[in-house]
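Limitations
The structure tokens in this dataset are predictions for the assembled complex, not deposited experimental models. Users should treat interface geometry with appropriate caution, especially where small molecules or nucleic acid strands are included. An illustrative entry is reproduced here so readers can see what is and is not provided.
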Amino acid sequence: MSLVTGSEADGGVAWSDLEQHRDQLVDRSLRDLFAADPERGERLAVGVGDLWVDYSKQPVTDETISLLIDLAAQRDVPGFIGRMLSGERVNTTEDRPALHTALRAPAGTAVMVDGTDVAPVVRETLGRMADVAKRLRSGRLQGATGRPISALVSLGIGGSHLGPAMATAALAHLAHPELDIRFASNLDGAEIERALDGLDPATTLILVCSKTFTTAETMVAAETARAWLVDGVGDDVSTHMAAATAATDLATGFGISPELTFQVPDWVGGRFSLPSAIGLSVMASVGPDAFTEMLAGMGMVDDHVASSTPDSNGPMLLGLLDVWHRSFLGASSLAVVPYSSQLGGFPPWLQQVSMESLGKRTGADGSLVAGQTGPVVWGAAGTDGQHAFFQMLHQGTDVVPCDLIGFAQPVADPRLAHHDALMANLFAQTEALAFGLTADEAAATGVPPDLVAHRTFPGDRPSTTILAPELTPSVLGQLVALYEHRTVVAGAIWGINPFDQWGVELGKSLSVRIAAELDGDEGRLTHDSSTNSLIRRYLKLRGRSA
Ligand code: F6P
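Predicted assembly:
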């Protein structure tokens, strides 16, 4: 275990208790902790809906958990979650609620925003989405030429892309066999070119996903797609374009018909918007029933986080472990490794959820935070990750906490002899990371003396394992909500607003200025000497001059 040196200012009693506790725990290896406590593997785990979350291979004892729970109480994390769930304006810098949970509340539950029950509006949008999805899936949604739509291209970026792309891929085994669902997010024209490649405009629906309907990447792609449609079917492309947005007036201004415009409520953050109309591509792919099951899975975890005691509250415990690693043990990153190739989009989805939420140095009250906040979040599907970055996880000089996610049932044909082998790898990795291999143990396996140092494994590489029965829509929804709430818990402890993202603005506005310069609209370049020089070189390479 490595230490964060120096005291975190503004700690409070629970914080300094945790610092002292950490100093006592620092010499206890996971080997010791397991040897001293045979029930540890069963006890330091929590059930969240269908998910079994085993955190026993984390560097904690019962006392650590109890002190972390004290910290949560001291920072009023349960109060913050309660205020979020009840629609208070917890997103203070944008003066909005953060009510993504309202999108998956069971039918019949009132959800109040500023004294108004928004549940009927949520239901109405879901109903309209289901209607279009059903017509698409049955070939009854027709384009300008009367031919059925058979392809949907979802344009969007960040939260308007990562969630739907991740979920569509995760549930590929349930996908409609004849619907071609594609995504384009990057501003690189190669992406939209590839997304449209081979499609027939007469049978394609373009879904423009943008909460603001102003994001450059998405609007440029939407223009390109509209020109492609006009080229193919003529000027009236109203049956070929749909929108998921909070800015419905802008969608209308763009020429998208109100029948194919789906409202994303203002009080849903972009990175939390998978259960909104932004998820229409997922619904089209797997059908409204499966989408509803995904929402129910999310709702199950929303109930869990709201009603469980802290010591049996999965998102609370995981958020606290994130704080333990980052603020007390000095870990600067978290690796997430789903043992499911279809869930390969989960790490990039989580990267935005976590890093856009927690990558902040200013507290919600406007003062600079003392100490560290959100870690780098990264990862890839196992077993691919094992052949890429696991070397570093096992023997590198940094300790990187990991989450390993696995499923009892495969999504592939169960007769294939793959699944036990896949899961054997997950179990093996958690064991190897935690307990390593000593020099004596390595030597005892016959390793030549000059290689013993290379073939030892330090162990004490922490991991949490999440085991679920099967990658169903409900389980996917549960995983999504588990990580969303975990992120909010860590944000509440650190005193930052997990729902804004001001850090993306400076680069955006500079790019607008530079785009004008590249266009020759601006005279003299007035950037620093590096940026000026790069722009001049770029223009020269493009055969133009500044
Ligand atoms: O990356 C910044 C961001 O504002 C994200 O928060 C958001 O998910 C993404 O851009 C897309 O925004 P929009 O849905 O408004 O196009």
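Some entries come with short summary sentences. For this one: The two ends are 54 Å apart (CA to CA).
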